[in-house]
Amino acid sequence: MVKNILCIGAGYVGGPTMAVIADRCPEIRVTVVDINEQRIAEWNSDRLPIYEPGLEEVVRRCRGRNLFYSTDIPRGIREAEVIFVSVNTPTKTFGAGAGRAADLQYLEKTARSIVEYAGNDKIVVEKSTLPVRTAEALSRVLHANTRGLKFRIVSNPEFLAEGTAIADLNSPDRVLIGGMETPEGNAAVEEIAAIYARWVPRERIITTNLWSSELTKLVSNALLAQRVSSINSISALCERTGANVHEVARAAGRDSRIGAKFLKAGIGFGGSCFKKDILNLVYLCEHYGLPEVAEYWLGVVRMNEFQASRFVGTMLDAMFNTVAGKRIAILGFAFKADTGDTRESPAITVCRRLLAERAEVAIYDPKALDNAKRDLADAPPEAVKFCASAAEAAEGAHAIALLTDWKEFRDLDYAALYRAMKKPAFLFDGRDQLDHRSLYELGFNVYPIGCAALTHFDREP
Ligand code: NAD
Ligand code: UGA
Predict the structure, then answer these.
(1) In the annotation, is 451 catalytic?
(2) Could you tell me the distance, in angstroms and rounded to a whole number, from the CA of residue 129 to the centre of ligand 1?
(3) Tens digits of per-residue pLDDT, 247-277?
(4) Using one digit for the tens of pLDDT, what is the confidence trace for 145-175?
(5) Exposed, middle or buried: residue 211 (CB in 10 Å: 0-12, 13-18, 19+)?
(6) Would you tell me how many other CB atoms lie within 10 Å of the CB of residue 97?
(7) What is the pTM of this model?
(8) Which of 23, 73, 244, 264 could be bridged to 451 by S-S, CB 3.0 to 4.6 A?
């Protein structure tokens, strides 16, 4: 029975995942280490480095009991029987495969630390999302040691979504564990399965070979993103034809073979992983000589870029082809609700495009303003305002652009916002969150995604 777990990488995955393992397995000592000292200090403070509903309670329950956040990587490695590797694997920005392949430098550095400090055999678990067959390279680095140490590699990709991470971890649709098809490999898979089996029903724990597990993670994200791009592509057609994308999605999604989830049209998917993982899949297909397959998946990313750019195009068209000098209230900057994470948020693209048109953007987000400030640090300061409320952002604005599906945006006093805005007042609902008819009746010109705009410009002069 495993007694001592280490996780290398205290980010959006390592932090919450290990907190839930510690919570569910009080008899296991769980340590999370990172090279980023500030991040570890925040994990040990009252202000955690990430916002995630329910996370604080779990950390408060376990921290100091059987959950420890530390920068002492050598000690962590020495003491652990199982090491989860949850470091970042961003898209490569340089050299061969730049813009597509995964940058595995952090993974390799982690492997080298494990080799350097390990004093006995370990199970090393790939928690990061990795290209298929990474375990082969990882094994070579780990076994290039002269002390005869043996490392068994297991793939255990993470499927949590931000904003619902704690619920996802407590009640996952499935836990996937891949291993080498050898007696030692099977035993390692079983040791990892036994950790999850403390709270996840056995029928939800799927075991496969290593390569299937690594590839399944990329495929799962690609399939989810594909659904978003598919419905977004249809939203464009709806706007031209008088069909309503929500009605289409609801009716099509009622077919149990299609399913209702992940068919919400919007300004496009963001987040640190969808784009990076699809580009990685594209790179792998090219690498393995499958250009047609690569091209097919690249279309999902292209459609996503089209959707954000189409949204800004609609804003420009509606606002008489110029936003120069106009204040635009941006409601929401996070890539989705219930997170402060802004990585690859479509709000970044939309704001940058508006700034290029010389608009002034007044941004409000309940949790993501610190990250928004970093994302737009290079923008002209007089053109970007960070606001403490939606009302402050809308004061004197020509338009509101709703970019994140925060629930609180559904309950704002839109009559008061309308009164505080310049006229004609525009509202671009990039997440189709609002009651468009009543906004129209308040006086707004309303532009939803995937259905007809409601404007007061019907009568020609
Ligand atoms: P992150 O950037 O938030 O965290 C990664 C952490 O690893 C950072 O704090 C970094 O300092 C640390 N790190 C890097 N190199 C290190 C080293 N050599 N030693 C010690 N620490 C090191 O990333 P994340 O969002 O947690 O994602 C981690 C992995 O999980 C990625 O592969 C990602 O694709 C995957 N994933 C992410 C999510 C998500 O929702 N964010 C979900 C599923 C899977
Ligand atoms: C996604 C997957 O859902 C997780 O299973 C996976 O573990 C994770 O990526 C990862 O590997 O990082 P996440 O990016 O946190 O999780 O959030 P999602 O809920 O998937 O949303 C992604 C983006 O798609 C958001 O910008 C969201 O607004 C958008 N989206 C989602 C839509 O536009 N429409 C939808 O119907 C669903």
Answers:
(1) no
(2) 9
(3) 999 999 999 999 999 999 999 999 999 999 9
(4) 889 999 999 999 999 999 999 999 999 999 9
(5) middle
(6) 18
(7) 0.97
(8) 244
